[in-house]
Structure of Adenylyl-sulfate kinase:
Amino acid sequence: MIRADDFRGFAGTVVGGPVRPGDTVAVAGSGVVSTIDRLLGPGGGTFDEAGPGTPVTVTLADDVDVRRGDLLTTPGALGNGLSPAKAYSATLVWTSEEPLRHGRSYLLLAGSRTVPAVVTTVRGRLDVVSGKQLAARTLGLNDIGTVELTTDTPVCLDRYQECRDTGSFLLVDRAGKETVAAGMVRHALRRGRNVVPHAYTVDRDARQRLKGQQAKVLWLTGLPGAGKSTIANALERRLHAMGLHTYVLDGDNVRSGLNKDLGFTLGDRAENVRRVAELTRILLDAGLIVIVALVSPFRADRAVAKSLFQPGDFAEVWVNTPAEVCAHRDPKGLYAQAKAGTLPNMTGLGQAYEPPEHPDMVVDGSGSLDDVTDELCALLQG
């Protein structure tokens, strides 16, 4: 957007058309209709007409709210598929050596718009030799697959067959900023347009006031056997004795119900963290102090979980217990199974554990339980 005195213009590139002054246009995001007043070129001159590929600055006859990433289109296009949606079916060409992970939040780049997105389902993978669609749970390097994905906020995307510019996108890894896939929109999913969150009068602030506390999330991460559950239990007992309202989300307990359909592959681990983070957000909104005890081995997944919360609401705590202590404890016999070769996806042995680089607190899971509880209580009060 360009502003100078009372000038208000919207800069972009024409991808369909041609367009002319006097044409009726609609903002694809809001549906607000206006008329093109002027078309200005990069040098400040005016156009009587601008075709596809032409960079222009558009001024409108009305004071219309147009935001970065919005599309101006014909009003008729809004009733023909181009309207905001949060769920799409798409074809992906996977370009990363690291496979697609279900539940991993990526960045979707479409034009000048960037929004978080999650691939929720892989519908199939194309066999490029036979042309047949094969069953698949993930996509690897150079695979072409049909997927369903959801975005955090509604975006306006065309079907690729109707417009390549507004029907294509990139997926970017949020941690490494690597482009992992190129996407082509097949169509918006019905649920992507029909689900509208309802705003309730009783909100988090009201619930916190009723409980007389400040809601907070403590996310305990560390190796299996590090003592996360033991620490969470001791901390909750302390907070309960202080009259505070809490809830613990323990990795094994969650996998016994909500996440019992998930295994321990990279993709399932990412989905496990995603679901727990979403549940944590609900409990935080209920005004509770939420203690999460979850291995959550990968930094990128923990970073995505943290991104769901406002600054100050989420504290990442690394239970930094020496690996030899964890293996000696081996409360569930996992290390013994891993060493025997019967547990290939064991974190710390079969799969990597990525320690937090900038945790809000580091505690020693092999030290005094009372001291660790004191530290975490101080963190909550800070």
Remarks:
- The chain is about 25% helix and 30% strand.
- The mean pLDDT is 87.
- The CA atoms of residues 157 and 353 lie 37 Å apart.
- Residues 204-381 form a domain with the Rossmann fold fold (CATH 3.40.50.300).
